[in-house]
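Memo to structure team: turn this sequence into structure tokens by end of day. - J.P.
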Amino acid sequence: TSTTRRQVTSLACNECRRVKCKCDGERPTCGLCERKGLVCDYDVGPRGRTALMALRHQYSLLETENNQLRELLRLIATLPPTDASEVLGRLRTNEDPLRVLQMVQAARL
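Reply from structure team:
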């Protein structure tokens, strides 16, 4: 006997989420909504992105920012004390840390 496996979907429709059942992800109407005669809709964010795609994008942005801030700290630690003091002064005046990083990197070229 052969068994057919259900195809895994990355995003369940709102009705399948509500009743906590496995959604087949068919568009425009999934199997459950079709059988029950329900309106089948999916949560999509701005520009057609799913919630998971939006989270992955946000994670990527935060990871990039984290790396840039780590680089700024590394540069401050390696600068001569007078230069490091100037950089810290700019940060204390609420100047954007990423702009300060760009300034320090440009000065070191």
